[in-house]
Amino acid sequence: MDKQMSSVIRRYYGFSFLTGFHFIAAVLIPFFTDWGGLNLTQAQLLQSWFALNIFVLEVPTGVLADRMGRKNSLVAGSLVAAAGALIYGSYPSVTLFVIGESLLAVNVALVSGADQALIYDALKLGGEEQRITQVVGRSRMFHLSGILIAAPLGSIIAQTLGTNAPMLMTSIPCVLSAVVAWTLPEADTTGKTATRSTAINIFKNGFIGIIQQKMILMTAINMSLVAAAAYAVIWRYQLVMETLDIPIGYYGLAHASLVVAETVILMNFDRLTGWFGTINRFASFSAYVVTAGFLVVAIWPNILTLAMFLALAGGFGLSRIDLLTAHMNHRFDSEYRATSLSSISMFRRLSLVILNPIMGGLTDWSLSYSLIIIGLLPLLTIFFPLPNDD
User: Fold this and answer.
1) What residue stretches are annotated with the Major facilitator superfamily (MFS) profile domain (predicted)?
2) Which domains does the chain have, with CATH numbers?
């Protein structure tokens, strides 16, 4: 690998690190319930609004990235995130929360697909596109490293400056990520064919193409089922800790352990898939262990099963998304790659729009029963098998 490519990859890793450097992660429940005055159902409705906005914006922003440049999309998304964090943490108001969630959704939609498409095209230009799974896995590791460092700091910030301070200070790494994104070079994928293409044609080749290709549609549904359960871990582990009378000061350590579990799995993608023979077998295994993580903590809640919940349901569930997304890169033409990846992500967002308020209501009713019900979602992947590896 030449020095220029190494420099590009390092900057890409730096961008990933900063996008994960959010101080709010370890104090989500106190932020919404204590400072914001919401119950879990209301907080989950806000998350549904967030996911709905991303669902609506996913393909349009993917089209924008494909036509106007992936780098510009990353810069704009980072700056919008900074504005969203400042508004969200300024005052406990539902109206401001809705505005803040909307801006944060714009950020996710602008970055989703565009980041991996940009680095894939850079690798392809250098004849190293076969490294995409490794690079994306490591970028996710850097992203998680940002969370790992920021989460405990967020707990300290909340204790000393107030529960809303972590959200306000998250705007700083957002601005820094925009600066790093601006330094990333971008391969020219907007040749004559793309220049003549209209947004409708790009949408057709991306989103409609996924619907028409059964193997990709099945993958999107498969990913959505496990992703919905894995996402629920982030919003449930603090509630489990409350039932175990664990002091809030340890929440940051619990979140850090979740990140460590996910990072270890990401660092060993090649080894794990080697053990199982194929990516599909490992993906099936990871779905089943997510279910196991939910069931053990629901039936036997204690410190040990909490750790299993974080490692199995959280670690395997959250890392699984990145593995399958990276694995799907080669199935799309470069011109429409960001649109196609964003379209797959839309399926995940739609599942959250539907399931968030349901899961929130179930949890307000019974934490243990909700953990069992949510934990059964990954088992449905047996009806939506992944396409054969090629």
Assistant:
1) 1-390
2) 3-383 (1.20.1250.20)
